[in-house]
């Protein structure tokens, strides 16, 4: 009964706010929402809107050069809040990494993060949105040196278990996925650059990376080339959610509007459409084998 009354009151205050924002003299008012973003994301977001010559609410496709997941998430958040009747403008707060961004949200310094989070990220200081990306919807490629012929010929999980891997220490679900494989060795790297260097110079065999849409699937960084092991991939098990602050004064209002808006976007198929356009969600080729499929 107490929970039901709390939900009723929350919905009432959300409706009251939305009425106020849309009423006569306040019809153009917009809530300023502090959002935690990584380095350079604000500029990429603004460049995308400038190229489209449209506000985020009117965007219908995310197909664009150099599109990133961070920009896509900012578009999805703003469209969801707009669909729920809550007009907002972003106040960008830069954070050096995902952990810092999530901390800013939990401390109430930001309302929301531009990054999605796995369930283990959440505590009592943050709201967890409904599922944005379902478990096992994301597949990742297995990448190693082109000269590692044994790795390039892997066709089974049993074969892959004989190799060593390196993964970014902040990629929690990648880590969990690899731990479940019971590999020969698993090393954690402090930054993206270190992943490539450890494979090149410390003879670690492979890592997991997103598979690009382009014909050449290989990845390059600072003169180091990593090749995609052909026709095999791994699924990530965890779901992803938006993280919203409970401590910020506008956190509850934004969270409830976000949930309403996400339902609308999801019903229209827009969330999956956008993530497919940026290649985060991929159609699994029938010829490929998912080594850790359940």
Structure description:
Helix 1 crosses helix 9 and helix 3 packs across helix 9. The two termini are 40 Å apart. It contains ten helices and 13 strands. It is globular and about 60 Å long. The N terminus is likely disordered. The protein is α/β, with parallel strands linked by helices. Strands 5, 8, 9, 10, 11 and 13 form a six-stranded mixed sheet that branches. It has a three-stranded parallel sheet with strand order 2-1-3, sandwiched between helices. The chain has a two-stranded antiparallel ribbon with strand order 4-12.
SSE layout and pairing:
Elements: H1 2-22, E1 31-37, H2 41-52, H3 69-83, E2 88-94, H4 98-106, E3 112-113, E4 126-128, E5 139-144, H5 149-152, H6 157-160, E6 164-168, H7 172-180, E7 185-189, H8 192-201, E8 207-209, E9 219-221, E10 224-228, E11 232-235, E12 243-245, H9 251-267, H10 270-277, E13 289-290
Parallel strand pairs: 1-2, 1-3, 6-7, 11-13
Antiparallel strand pairs: 4-12, 5-8, 5-10, 5-11, 9-10
Helix pairs in contact: 1-9, 3-9
